[in-house]
Structures are given as structure tokens and as C-alpha cells.
Amino acid sequence: MKLDNNNHSVFLLHYHLVLVVKYRRNVLDGEVSEYAKDMFIRISENYNITLVEWNYDENHIHVLFKAHPNTEMTKFINAYKSASSRLIKKEFPKVKQKLWKEMFWSRSFCLLTTGGSPTEAIKKYIENQGQK
User: Fold this and answer.
1) Coil, strand or helix: which one is 4?
2) Residue 77 φ/ψ region, left for φ over 0, alpha for ψ in the -120 to 50 degree band, beta for the rest
3) How many Cβ atoms are within 10 Å of 7's Cβ, its own excluded?
């Protein structure tokens, strides 16, 4: 396992993000997903985020990414959702047929932390500290 680092810390922070299309409309295909993925990569550079894995279904996306401890997740997610919403609707007129209002993404999102060790293993490790 390779750890990330900066001047003052060592870390490995993985996140699983799920974004859902507004009204769960089935508008995502390979072309729209690839465009959204490219935008994610471009915007993430400003937030110390690295894409690890990307996949989609017709009405939602799953993203696995790494981030630095100082990354402001909600700012990044809102910036991504705002920019991608505007540009996807501009670039793909077929999307406007199913999503006629401004928003492309649902207001909500799911963001989960993922780790290398199960929580129980970490809990047991911490409980055993200081014991011989």
C-alpha cells in the first residue's frame, strides 16, 4: 500500500461518491459519462483530488477517488456538479429533452469514506495500544 504525503503529513484517503441525475432520468450513456469524467479530472486538479475509478448507470455515477486531508469536499462536489450540469446540458442537446430545467444532478449526493482495514480491526488495534 503506497501512502500519499505532503510537507507535514502522510495519508491515504479514499472516497466513494455517488451522484444521481435529477428525477433519476435515464440520460447517461458512454459519451455523456466520458464527458462528465473528463470534467471531473479537470476540476479535481484544483482540489488535490485524484480519480481512481469511474463507472455509470443510466441515471447515476459512481466515483472512487483519493484526496488530501485539507480538501474541502463539499466545495469540490458543488463546483463539479455546477460546472458539469451547465456544460453537459450545453454540449448534449438530447439531455435537455428529458431535463428541461437548469439542474442536471439531484441536489443530494452520497459520499462515503473507504479504508484499507475494516473498522473492527482498527478498533481492536486501538484497544490493544499500550498493552504488552
Assistant:
1) strand
2) alpha
3) 4
Per-residue HEC secondary structure of 53-101 comes to: EEEEECCEEEEEEEECCCCCHHHHHHHHHHHHHHHHHHHCHHHHCCCCC
Amino acid, res. 20:
V
| pLDDT of 132 | 62
How far is 14 from 2, CA to CA, in rounded Å?
Answer: 12
Annotated catalytic sites, by residue? Answer: 125
Residues in the chain: 132
β-pairing, 4-5 vs 10-11, is antiparallel
How far apart CA 117 and CA 21 sit, in angstroms, is 32
> pLDDT of 64-117, one tens digit each?
999 999 999 999 999 999 999 999 999 999 998 899 888 999 999 999 998 766
